[in-house]
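User: For documentation purposes, I need each entry recorded in a consistent format: the amino acid sequence on its own, followed directly by the corresponding structure tokens. There are two entries in this batch. Please keep commentary to a minimum and don't merge the entries.

Assistant: Recorded as requested. Entry 1:
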Amino acid sequence: MRIRSYLALLVLACLLGAYMLEQVLGYHYNHVQTLASKYTQSLLLAKDFERIENSASQFLVSTDLVIASGNTYLIFGAKNMGDYISTELSKLQDGNLSSIISTEIKKTIINIQKINNHLDTVGKIPEKELIIHLRKLLPDYDFVSLSLVESIHFMMSETKNVITQEALSLKEEKSFIATAAWVARTFFLLLIIIIWWWANRKICNPLNDLIASSHKALTGHDFQTTDNAPKEITELSNDFKLLTQTLSHQASHDPLTELYNRRAFERNLNEVMKYNNVHLTVNAQNWFLCFIDLDYFKTINDTCGHAVGDQVLVNVARILKQKVRSYDTVARLGGDEFAILINRCPVDKALDIAEQIKRSINQLTYHCQGEDFQLSASIGIAPKKDESSATELLNSADIACGISKKSGRNCVHLFEMNQQIVEDDKQQLLSVHHLNNALNNDLFVLYKQDIIPLQKQKVGQSFEILLRMLGSEGQLISPACFLPVAERYLLTSKIDRWVINAVCEHFISHHEQLTSIKTIAINLSGHSLTDTELETFIISKLTESLIPADKICFEITETAAIKNITRARLFMENIKALGCQFALDDFGSGHSSYAYIKQLPTDKIKIDGAIIANMLTNPIDFTAVKSICEIGKAAKQEIIAEFVENNNLVEALTALGVDYAQGYYFAKPEPLVPQ
């Protein structure tokens, strides 16, 4: 039944109850009015009988004087009095009287008529014979007059009895109507209460149950549907259940791969750790956290497009679900990072699962720019220890995955705490809280590394601004330790802002140093290229600091620029309008394309150091450097080489036409402000 049907029944019941109350009270009110009217009429009748009784007394006195004493001169007056009494009685008889009183009235009228006849007889008797005839009439007269008096007294008595009975009935009816009114009101009130209780049970209680279920669902419990309720509430309850299930699924699952997301995985991991810490058993250590990071996935996204990258992630997720057991937990932590919680499993079986996953991923291929490429993954496994927490287990698996990458990628590494390299990585592991603390308290230090001209001596000094972070004990922390965390939590734009501000403030205080400086190279992250606020900050800061803009060269990586090439080009053009230069850093890494040299308004190309380091031993790297130099010269770009470690590299690079070199052969990084 629908709610409107319940409401219609509720209104109908109220109207029916009110109608019944009105009918009951109205009937009794009319009855009281009728009784009161009868009572009033009886009182008036009694008054009429009193008046008739007085008139009858006068009539009998006159007739007694005529018949008993012979006073014939009273005959006319007595007859008129008798006719008057008969007329009044006839008028009363026309009213609504009882049959007894009506009979007595008739009898009284007859007796009055008899007395009047006697008076007529007396009036006709000669005076000489009057005494004799009166003696004869007197017995009959006495009988009639006595009957007349008795009839009048009877009617008076009967009327008083009727008045008494009607007064008692009126009183009883008034008392009854008062009682009936209270009873009817009480009944109506009870009816309203019953209807309210019924409506509350049918409508309000299901709604309250629905609200309670919604509140429980907000705290993570399952939503309980409401069954015994109106159709609308049942449908709403079912829709709420479907909605909460959908939202719960969306909140705990990655929309692309349909795996658990980071939040749901960490919640599940914490529950497992808490349970095992409370219920310690001999097999408590047979839980493993497997951390999977796809190799060079960012390059796939940047060069092949997000559609290809998404399909790769979906294929990897399918492999993970196929290779694990039904009670293992698989999740996508974000980007190209996956995790598996392997439950109740010996170490050799866990390693076998990881190896199967690695091989299956390595068999995946993706198509990009007309070629097919193989995919690979670096996998780290960390066993659960009795004393370890969920965070420590995640960190251990992350460290093991990092070691796997350092070992050449496409391999599986089992976390071992007794390895010194693991201890070193663990010490270097930073959290987002360390970075925020460093940003808020200026715990960064600016370094610089010279950039040396190779072809001919350039006028002025060129160097790249480098960044170090101060640890809790004052030790210097390499950017390799904190920049990955900054990129993961989108803090690189804030770090870039800090660096730009610190460089400007330094040269505002040491303006005289700018005379001997040709180029100050400052790195920008990929996130900064889409940050309009940072763009505005750079323009404002360079304008206010009065630092010549042509001395500033911003370095951006190729992969960061092509991620959003339209926005990157707009960012570069706005900054170049001040006079600044741009260098395309790490060029040649990944799936680079020379077409980007034409699309981006850069002034310099900085060849990736990994290619430079091996160019003398690897012909492919040498050819790549040579090709980059030729393309760069054709595009009128200055060429800079990184990681130059010896004189042989210097000679080879000079011969290829590289304009600048940077590396430990010339100078190691040193503080911007001498200590």
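Entry 2:
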Amino acid sequence: MKNKFLILLTLFFISFDSYCQTNSFKNSSPLNIPLIISGTFGELRANHFHAGIDIKTNGKEGYQVISLDEGYVDRIRVGTTGYGKALYIKHPNGLTTVYAHLMKFSPKIESFVKSAQYKKETYEIQLFPKDLEIKVNAGEIIGLSGNTGGSSGPHLHFEIRNSKNQKTINPLYYLDDIKDDRKPSIRSFYIFNNNDIHPEKMSKHQIKKINDSVYRSENVYTIGKISFGLNMFDRQSLSYNRNGVYKTAIYKNDTLKFEYNFNELDFEDSKFINLLRDYKTKKEKGITIQRIIKHPESKKSFLSNEYNNGFFNIKNNKEYFFTLKISDHKGNNSYVEIKITGKKIIDNFIKTEGKLIKTDQDYSIKLKDKEVVFKKNTLFENAYLNIKERNDTLYIDKDIYPLRNPMEISYEINNDDSLLIRQSFISRLNSKGKPTYIFTKKKDDKFHIKSSSLGIFFIAKDTLSPEIKPLNFYKGQWISKLKYLKIKISDDFSGIKKYRGYLNDKWILFEYEPKRNTLTYDFSDIIFKKTKHNLKIYLEDNVGNKKVLKTMFYRKY
């Protein structure tokens, strides 16, 4: 079986490398600047595996983004979250390239998008042009780099996908030679002791750096079923960013026993991301401990079903020698050498407080005026959960157990005031202890929500209307020289739900940037021949509080 596994693994790498070489591009960079990586393919993000790479743009917006090859625009997305402004270009070689967080599209694409936005009277839009409707050439400028959507700073998010199945492929196989002579860094080493019913016990073990690539663990004493975890990162030569690692492997007595790498990803993989890190440590301390396992519930496409899935049985009075090998895409390697002696250790880590929630059963937990529902497979693993209430506050343990599917929570409505009911919703405290808005349905005299995490819930109210304030003009001003109209909008709690802007009673396209709380209108969109212009903006938050701005200005064309 071992030889069969190694042969299959070798054949996979040969066929994958051959596939990447055959499906090549005419250009090898989406930017005309040196490529410095701030995010690697497959690294663990808050709720997903990174499906591409992030390329630095010197902290600036506006760099020319070019198509890697000829093809046509297959998809366009414009949104205030996620990829922001994004282009998907389909190429004859069977691959699709994706360029995200753009500031602007090229003129011909921008014109196509704005025409659709004005037709549908919406900023956020998703378009699927017909095949060959918008052709692009190899090296053609398709847009400008930016900071739109869920981006936390100016950069280009770049992906390569298999056009047939939409699986994402590690872009480092195709891009310009990115300088990387740094070995991955290992900060700490962990062992997980597994139990069939109760949460795992995790123990941290000291490691000592022997040379520039080898770390050695202190002697470990344990017994039973174990697995490994590492707090680690990788850096390229020109970048200080702590990026994700490319490949991890476990050797037992110099024999490969388990391995995974980030050559290719399926978007479904992200549903199981919290099984590849220690969720409790991430939530409580913000530290990422990457597991070197294939969890029994995991359906990740990049994990093989062969072998022992990264779990090992340690027997009493036996000695074991393991090596963890960590590699980057350039083949720089780091190693952790581990000696384990089988020895029974008395511990009291098993939690038996609260109610046992099993994954294969449905639970409806009714309290005074609240109900919590865990359907089958809400949790990944069985867990004891403390669930209690105090007045309108509901405590559902700590957010240290990842959920596979959302749990359902309902509160009885104990008020006849329709306005107060409309302004109220179920809120949850976030990791910083601040209340957050959760979309709340009101049905059958109850508030209903679905939550993807445990924690503290309560009834909150948002009674204040959103705010609107002109930024670069004032009422009655002549603004003929301005290219853009800028408006600041904000909401104190539940957040902006929708907005609409009208100039001289005609709908106009305002681009919403939540990070800056701004609306921006481009005066070149529509030519108005009059000089006096009446502006109206309608704003509504998530619980229905509204605000209207009515003003005017003068402008010549």
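Summary note for entry 2:
The chain has four domains: 22-173, 185-342, 355-461, 467-554.
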